[in-house]
Amino acid sequence: VVAAVLFIFGLKQMGHPRTAVRGNALGAAGMLLAVALAIVEALLSPHSFNPTYIIAGVIVGGVVGGILAVKVEMTAMPQLVGLLNGFGGLASVFVAFAALVDPEPLSIDALVATAASGLIGAVTFWGSLVACGKLQELKAFKKPYPVPMPQLVNGALAAVALILTLFMIVVAINYSYDVSFVTNIVFYVLICIVAS
Predict the structure, then answer these.
(1) How far apart are the first and last CA of the chain?
(2) How far apart are CA 169 and CA 112, in angstroms?
(3) 125 Cα distance to chain centroid
(4) CA–CA gap between residue 80 and residue 133 (Å, rounded)
(5) What is the pLDDT of residues 70-122, one digit of tens each?
(6) pTM, whole model, 2 decimals?
């Protein structure tokens, strides 16, 4: 709860130039607290846990973030924010996939959450890359590429994603774990492709 409060106050203070540095520090403190508590909780759990990946992620992310914070000019900040937001969406896709390949079978609500995370993460990733490209004024994004009947296309894509999610659930209910494990990975990948 404290980490979430730090995030909220950090975001609030990042809305004004005079308090943005303090807001950034509060957000970073909230993230550090959340990661530290996740490691402590995992170490106290009865299951074996190796914090190597979490610690490596914190170090690599800290180094990359520190370099970007120093190197990127203020006028390029919107592009950087768009790019980092896209990477957050991509991380959501990978975290949901990791939950899907967990050796334990997933419940129905976990399957729905996994499909939604993949869908939202893929849309966030590609949408953020497009936003970054437009802000950077890349040639590929100079002129629009209109899609005929965009509402119909978007509706059809949403329907396909929903049907694939329903297939994941039906397979999980009606077939053995070995069958549903493989088919749900295929359905998940297809959901992410449709969202892209």
Answers:
(1) 33
(2) 8
(3) 8
(4) 10
(5) 888 878 888 888 888 888 899 999 999 988 888 777 888 888 999 999 999 99
(6) 0.74
